[in-house]
Amino acid sequence: MAWLVLIVSGVLETVWAIALDRSAGFTRPAPTAVFGVALLLSMAGLGYALRTIPVGTGYAVWVGIGAVGTALVGMIALNEPAGLPRILCLLMVVCGVVGLKYFH
């Protein structure tokens, strides 16, 4: 259960990062509200997961999911560059996250 919560919390990290960008410096109410709710839920989920998952592993997986998710949303939906080197680097992050899960 802790791993599932950690994965959902990582996805919520992507949500709050994108909402933070869309909030335009907290001047737009709806993205600001999404940011706040997603941030609180993401942190709460991380805290819950860290009850049973070591902090180094849990935090690295959480950040990895959030970073890869945010980069993918940027490339797919926000027209950010999606060159081969960037995609390969994201794949390395994914491999690291999967490795941390399996070697936990």
Short description, anyone?
With 104 residues, the chain is mostly helical. The protein has helices at residues 2-22, 29-49, 55-77, 84-102.
Question: Can you walk me through this structure?
Answer:
This protein has one domain. The mean pLDDT is 95. Helix content is 81%, strand content 0%. It has 104 residues and is mainly α. 27% of the residues are buried. The chain is flat. The chain contains 4 helices and no strands. The longest helix has 23 residues.
Itemize the secondary structure elements and their pairings.
Layout lengths: L1 H21 L6 H21 L5 H23 L6 H19 L2
Helix pairs in contact: 1-2, 1-3, 3-4
Distance between the termini: 15 Å
Overall mean pLDDT stands at: 95
Given as residue ranges, the uncertain stretches (5+ residues, pLDDT < 50) are none
Total count of domains:
1
Count of discrete alpha- or pi-helical segments spanning 4 or more residues: 4
Principal-axes shape call: flat
Rg for CA atoms: 14 Å
Residue fraction in strands: under 5%
Residues in helix, %: over 70%
What are the defining features of this structure?
Small_drug/metabolite_transptr; membrane; mainly alpha; transport; 104 residues; flat; transmembrane transporter activity
